[in-house]
Specification:
Pfam families: Penicillinase_R. The protein is mainly alpha-helical. It is built from 6 helices and 2 strands; from the N terminus they run H-H-H-E-E-H-H-H. The protein is elongated. 13% of the residues are buried.
């Protein structure tokens, strides 16, 4: 029996998702959940890997397609894309979206605030084309 003191510390929220996405990004083609399990942590339960993949699928961070009797998985988003999906999820869960965005923007450091303005201007220019 494993000594409880020697058990691995609990991962930070989202850390396992990040590890799974990183593994998928190293794959040269769509891969099985068993492949992901081997490349993330062979001691990780297969069901845990499947749970993470399904959660990432719900967040549109991965895609899957049936191949034979199982699925193969691919990354649909990089780490920046996953962070953006998380931000969307937070915003979608709030009643006053405007207040959340206003609080976020006003708390940004000056350089990030200018970067956000530049990106918004660029997005407006691209949508006008």
């Amino acid at each position: 029996m494993v000594n409880p003191d020697l058990r691995r510390q609990r991962r930070a929220q989202g850390e396992l998702e990040t590890q799974v996405l990183a593994a998928l990004h190293t794959a040269e083609a769509p891969v099985t959940a068993a492949w992901v399990q081997e490349h993330v942590d062979a001691e990780l339960a297969y069901t845990t890997v499947m749970t993470v993949l399904v959660r990432l699928l719900e967040k549109r961070a991965v895609t899957r397609r049936r191949e034979g009797r199982s699925f193969v998985w691919s990354a649909a988003a990089d780490e920046a894309g996953l962070a953006a999906l998380k931000m969307h999820k937070v915003l979608d869960g709030e009643r006053d979206r405007r207040a959340v965005l206003a609080s976020f923007v006003t708390s940004l450091p000056e350089g990030d605030e200018q970067l956000l303005r530049d990106l918004l201007d660029q997005a407006c220019d691209e949508s006008a084309d």
